[in-house]
């Protein structure tokens, strides 16, 4: 049997070229077959089509057409975040240049657990991590001397690391104090790290209440870690960060800010002021696979004091032997809890260098403007109710006079049709449809079409009936 060609090495580019043509054609065929933002028919129909295309997952004899067949089936059964009516989640359409850079990373396949596996990648990560940390903390200085950041798989890993660093900074124990609006990963991280049950502070308006936080900090014994949010998952709201930071300083509590969603506002001159107080945090979570238009995964944890990262130091002789480190080989094990780690930094670096702060800021401004336009359409439409004007790019709305059962049924019907993808959020005791607008190419006609589809689908349903 002839050895299949490899992706890198002298012949790698030649081997990849025809395969890329096959993949691109299959992606196009799959998207045409899908015909919308989501495959039609619901879970059972999608599963049946995929099973038919795949056949036997591990046959005795290989199929030379598998790449074309499976990529086409994968694309046909995908949710397409680049479709203007795919607006349910914090799931962005990735930039083509970032996806192209990701191909290079996959082909070369560096692993950031030792320098001799990733010489250039390790240096590139150092530079990009320092640059993004400086963006959060508005700090100067060279890499290694000022604020720093770790590249993670996303907000969940970043939040977990933030709790771990806080625990170690306090000598092995810390109590998490979080708003009722905080991301679920914070409570899970506390559980995973064996920390006490988190204290939940009310967020009656969807944001953490500073007075309630002050009361909690006054009665709780330390050490304490407060977690605030800049961009809630349900409505895209931003906690009052300056007031929260002041309370933390007064009570000597450590502060972590989960800005997985809202952190992208840093790139926009227009919207950056909404993150005032961010630089008071000891640690900050960022996700550039949200308002950064990166393929998953592209998370970061920014750290104000790089000395906190000493808690992650670990020795494995085959990866970072003491004499190798003393001889000048960089030690990468203290940059993550993971060992094998792909070079997600390359797509970040390509995007930052190609677009610059102004280019990324323009994309942020576009999606925020589309959200404001959509909110205005909802507000002016007699058949809909708007929850509130958007803070970032999330709009909550619902058919006027409809009950929660109808709201849920309309959403599921649109999903089954494959015509539009909307999320759901429960606020003020009611269920809302959620449009999270992360596609800079979405236009006014798309926004009007989304409302039209909701109206038309509601008309086919009756209260209490959930479509199959």
Automatic annotation (TrEMBL):
Its cofactor is pyridoxal 5'-phosphate. InterPro entries: PyrdxlP-dep_de-COase, PyrdxlP-dep_Trfase, PyrdxlP-dep_Trfase_major, PyrdxlP-dep_Trfase_small. One of its GO terms (biological process) is carboxylic acid metabolic process. The lineage of its organism: Bacteria, Bacillati, Actinomycetota, Actinomycetes, Kitasatosporales. The modification N6-(pyridoxal phosphate)lysine is found at residue 290. It comes from Streptomyces coeruleorubidus. Belongs to the group II decarboxylase family. Keywords: Aminotransferase, Decarboxylase, Lyase, Pyridoxal phosphate, Transferase. SUPFAM superfamilies: PLP-dependent transferases. It holds the Pfam family Pyridoxal_deC. GO terms for molecular function: aromatic-L-amino-acid decarboxylase activity; pyridoxal phosphate binding; transaminase activity. This is Aspartate aminotransferase family protein. The keyword Ribonucleoprotein does not apply. One of its GO terms (cellular component) is cytoplasm.
């Amino acid at each position: 049997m002839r050895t299949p060609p490899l992706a890198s090495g002298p012949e790698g580019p030649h081997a990849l070229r025809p395969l890329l043509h096959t993949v691109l054609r299959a992606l196009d065929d799959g998207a045409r077959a899908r015909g919308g933002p989501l495959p039609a028919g619901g879970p059972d129909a999608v599963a049946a089509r995929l099973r038919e295309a795949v056949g036997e997952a591990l046959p005795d004899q290989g199929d030379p057409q598998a790449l074309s067949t499976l990529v086409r089936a994968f694309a046909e059964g995908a949710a397409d975040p680049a479709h203007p009516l795919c607006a349910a989640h914090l799931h962005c359409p990735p930039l083509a240049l970032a996806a192209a850079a990701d191909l290079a990373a996959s082909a070369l396949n560096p692993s950031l657990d030792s320098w001799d596996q990733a010489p250039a990648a390790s240096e590139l990560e150092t530079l990009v991590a320092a640059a993004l940390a400086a963006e959060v903390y508005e700090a100067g200085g060279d890499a290694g001397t000022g604020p720093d950041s770790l590249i993670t798989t996303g907000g969940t890993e970043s939040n977990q690391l933030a709790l771990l660093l806080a625990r170690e900074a306090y000598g092995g124990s810390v109590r998490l104090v979080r708003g009722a609006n905080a991301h679920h990963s914070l409570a899970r991280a506390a559980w995973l790290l064996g920390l006490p049950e988190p204290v939940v502070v009310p967020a009656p308006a969807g944001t953490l209440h500073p007075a309630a936080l002050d009361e909690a900090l006054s009665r709780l014994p330390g050490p304490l870690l407060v977690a605030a949010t800049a961009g809630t998952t349900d409505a895209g709201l931003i906690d009052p960060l300056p007031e929260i930071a002041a309370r933390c300083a007064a009570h000597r509590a450590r502060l972590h800010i989960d800005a997985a969603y809202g952190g992208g506002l840093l790139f926009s001159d227009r919207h950056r002021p909404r993150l005032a107080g961010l630089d008071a945090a000891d640690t900050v979570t960022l996700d550039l696979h949200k308002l950064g238009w990166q393929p998953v995964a592209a998370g970061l944890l920014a750290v104000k004091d790089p000395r906190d990262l000493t808690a992650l130091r670990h020795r494995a002789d085959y990866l970072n032997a003491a004499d190798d480190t003393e001889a000048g080989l960089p030690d990468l094990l203290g940059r993550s809890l993971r060992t094998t780690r792909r070079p997600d930094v390359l797509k970040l670096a390509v995007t930052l260098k190609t677009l610059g702060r102004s280019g990324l800021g323009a994309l942020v401004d576009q999606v925020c403007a589309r959200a404001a336009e959509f909110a205005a359409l909802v507000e002016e439409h007699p058949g809909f109710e708007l929850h509130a004007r958007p803070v970032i790019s999330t709009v909550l709305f619902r058919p006027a006079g409809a009950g929660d059962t109808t709201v849920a049924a309309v959403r599921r019907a649109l999903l089954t049709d494959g015509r539009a993808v909307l999320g759901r959020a429960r606020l003020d005791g009611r269920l809302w449809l959620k449009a999270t607008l992360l596609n800079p190419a979405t236009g006014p006609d798309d926004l009007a079409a989304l409302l039209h589809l909701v109206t038309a689908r509601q008309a086919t349903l009756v209260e209490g009936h959930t479509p199959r």
